[in-house]
Amino acid sequence: MGDDNGIRALAKRFFDAIETGDADTVRDCYAPHVEIWHNTDGKISTREDNVRTLQNFIARVPQRRYENRRIHLFDGGFVQQHDLHCILADHHHEVVVAACLVCRVENGTIVRLDEYFDSARLADFRAR
Predict the structure, then answer these.
(1) What is the pTM of this model?
(2) Which residues of 76-113 are buried (b: 16+ CB within 10 A; e: fewer)?
(3) Is residue 80 a contact partner of residue 70, using CB atoms and an 8 Å limit?
(4) Three-class DSSP category at 9
(5) What is the tens place of the pLDDT at every residue in 41-70?
(6) CA distance 108 to 105
(7) The domain that contains 43 carries what CATH number?
(8) Sorting pLDDT into bands at 50, 70 and 90, what band is 3?
(9) Which residue pairs from 9-17 have beta carbons closer than 8 angstroms and sit at least 24 positions apart in sequence?
(10) Residue 1 confidence class, pLDDT cut points 50, 70, 90
């Protein structure tokens, strides 16, 4: 899936699945050997670790939406910047976290994902 339309479709499918809480589709967007890194801890996680984290996130944040999605393609992948709006399970607080993801794509799946969160806003999210 080296073509622009295919990479755009994969990115849309991936983020739409997170937004709707479809962990199985997220898993399918990843290559089995994907490496997932976050700026918040500097560690690499596996596909299954990430899906478990996503499932916990879905339970804690039952309402979430991506706004201001900006995708930029590069040879073999994409960068997406967005604002993730989260309504926490207590339904009293909305937290908006700016993020940027850099994804390398091979054979129609994500093989490397580097995720950068606005650490100040993420700290606000974790405090609630």
Answers:
(1) 0.89
(2) ebbbbebbbbbebeeeeeebebebbbbbbbeeebbbbb
(3) yes
(4) helix
(5) 899 999 999 999 999 989 888 889 999 999
(6) 6
(7) 3.10.450.50
(8) confident
(9) 10/105, 10/108, 10/109, 10/110, 11/71, 11/78, 11/80, 11/103, 14/103, 14/110, 15/66, 15/69, 15/80, 15/82
(10) very low
How far apart, in Å, are the Cα atoms of 81 and each of 48, 90, 92?
Answer: 24, 27, 26
Instruction: State yes or no: pLDDT of 2 exceeds 60.
Output: no
- For the chain, the domain total comes to 1
Structure tokens at 47: 């596909």
Question: Hey, what are 105's tokens?
Answer: 């794509």
